[in-house]
């Protein structure tokens, strides 16, 4: 079994709809993956499996040397940092920024009567500083801009010092400046050899941070291509994935796609 993720023939079926169709995927230590595909391709479903929040209908999902269905997911989940819009929607409106991050230590949203150590708060504060959010730690999450919220969510995902970091569309809703700031910070994280293995889901090639090593392309629940990033993010594979004839350029690790006319 691989160190981090080993999916073998994983399918997810709901009624007559196949969300994932016999997906094989291996993610090893040190790798940084981007998962791209059009709306409805199955990206979020795939990430839910990797986050131990969804079981496959068939096939096997190995996560951090455990196998879904044979492991207590409540022990596995703290080893996985996860940032997604679904999770963010559970954060109470008046929660302050520090508490959004510190509550990850208990895997809850909304600080209540859990007993946090001084070290938990120190770590949350340090992570918020790393992500440029230190000055805003007493603000409510609801009052932040979309870009600020995204950075707080990533700080939260890193709170438990995870072995695997999953980011579902962290660039969604950001303006150009916010996106570029995020891409820059994720590129820095990707270059940090102490950082966890990362999987980032996006629709947009422009959001792929330099330093990411591997890519998977999904369409209709199936894998179009997966492997080293330079072999996967080609005009041919991306055109098949998005169903549009594309020209793809790469410059210093940044990718752009435009429709061919
Ligand atoms: N419970 C369900 N029953 C039937 N279909 C479902 C169910 N849950 C999700 N789907 C469908 O499965 C497909 C894959 O959904 P998923 O959210 O994984 O796609 P995605 O690639 O993340 O899409 P997007 O980019 O739009 O967020 C979609 O067509 C969605 O409508």
From TrEMBL:
Keywords carried by this UniProt record: ATP-binding, Nucleotide-binding
Pfam families on file: ABC_tran
PROSITE patterns, alphabetized: ABC_TRANSPORTER_2
Gene3D superfamilies in alphabetical order: P-loop containing nucleotide triphosphate hydrolases
MF terms in GO: ATP binding; ATP hydrolysis activity
Taxonomy, superkingdom: Bacteria
Record protein name field: Iron complex transport system ATP-binding protein
């Amino acid at each position: 079994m691989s160190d981090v993720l080993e999916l073998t023939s994983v399918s997810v079926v709901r009624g007559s709809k196949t969300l994932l169709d016999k997906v094989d995927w291996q993610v090893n230590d040190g790798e940084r993956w981007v998962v791209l595909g059009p709306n409805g391709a199955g990206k979020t479903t795939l990430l839910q499996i990797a986050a131990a929040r969804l079981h496959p209908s068939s096939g096997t999902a190995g996560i951090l040397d455990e196998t879904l269905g044979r492991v207590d997911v409540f022990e596995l989940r703290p080893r996985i940092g996860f940032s997604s819009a679904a999770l963010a929607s559970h954060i109470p409106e008046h929660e302050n920024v520090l508490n959004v991050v510190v509550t990850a230590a208990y895997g809850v949203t909304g600080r209540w009567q859990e007993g946090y150590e001084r070290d938990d708060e120190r770590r949350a504060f340090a992570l918020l500083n790393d992500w440029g959010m230190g000055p805003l730690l007493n603000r409510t999450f609801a009052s932040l801009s979309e870009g600020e919220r995204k950075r707080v969510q990533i700080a939260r995902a890193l709170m438990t010092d995870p072995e695997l970091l999953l980011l579902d569309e962290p660039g969604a809703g950001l303006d150009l400046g916010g996106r570029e700031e995020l891409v820059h910070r994720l590129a820095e994280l990707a270059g940090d050899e102490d950082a966890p293995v990362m999987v980032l889901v996006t629709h947009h090639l422009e959001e792929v941070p330099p330093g990411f090593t591997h890519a998977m392309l999904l369409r209709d629940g199936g894998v179009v291509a997966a492997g080293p990033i330079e072999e996967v993010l080609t005009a041919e594979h991306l055109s098949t994935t998005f169903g549009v004839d594309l020209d793809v350029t790469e410059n210093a690790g940044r990718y752009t796609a435009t429709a061919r006319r």
